[in-house]
Specification:
The chain has 5 helices and 6 strands. It is α+β, with helices and mostly antiparallel strands. 35% of the residues are buried.
């Protein structure tokens, strides 16, 4: 299955430009596909020229506000963590993915990383707790901001790679909880980019992905 992750308005949230033709939901719950996007001319080049998609579990690296199932036609190439195609359209949106679920999933990922680290930093654990409560409407912005700052401090203080990855994952979870709105997007992106390498490596080894 091919996934495309976008902002709520159909603009890219992981790089790129323009606006996608979004599918529409019918009264009976089915979907009408979006119009085909214009064909890409020239050589397909990852991150430079072409429509980009996540294939199956690659979606874990590209999560964002809205997730769609996509369809492609014509030639394509596969890069390390994406597929690049010449022409595509969106088939349907995954309604089960929303703000609350995204925030709780970020917390779950962080907790899995913390679970494989001996004696995880209490600040990291607390950040997860606050982020989870925030996702459920039980914590304030001030509480979340304080937990986020403490989790960043824990990451900076971590002395070895696995502990560093776990602490960054907790900070990332707190940032994700805070950053759904566009005003906080920079915080989300900074946290994601800093955590991605060690977080992915540590979780992959733990779960044999």
């Amino acid at each position: 299955m091919l996934f495309k992750v976008l902002n709520e308005d159909g603009t890219p949230c992981n790089g790129g430009s323009g606006r996608w033709n979004l599918p529409t939901r019918n009264e009976d719950g089915t979907w009408t596909s979006g119009e085909w996007m214009p064909e890409i001319l020239g050589e397909l080049v990852p991150c430079e020229n072409g429509y980009h998609f996540a294939v199956d579990v690659q979606i874990l690296e590209w999560l964002g506000p809205a997730i769609y199932e996509a369809e492609i036609v014509g030639d394509y190439i596969d890069a390390d963590n994406k597929r690049v195609a010449r022409q595509a359209r969106l088939l349907r949106r995954f309604d089960a993915w929303n703000k609350r679920i995204a925030r709780l999933f970020a917390v779950w990922c962080a907790r899995q990383t913390l679970a494989i680290v001996p004696n995880p930093d209490p600040r990291s654990i607390a950040a997860c707790d606050v982020a989870e409560r925030y996702a459920n409407g039980q914590a304030t912005d001030e509480e979340l901001n304080a937990a986020w700052a403490a989790a960043w401090a824990a990451a900076r203080d971590a002395a070895w790679a696995a502990a560093w990855a776990a602490a960054w994952a907790a900070a990332w979870a707190a940032a994700w909880a805070a950053a759904w709105d566009a005003a906080r997007a920079a915080a989300r992106d900074a946290a994601r980019d800093a955590a991605r390498r060690e977080f992915r490596s540590t979780v992959s080894k733990a779960f044999h992905l």
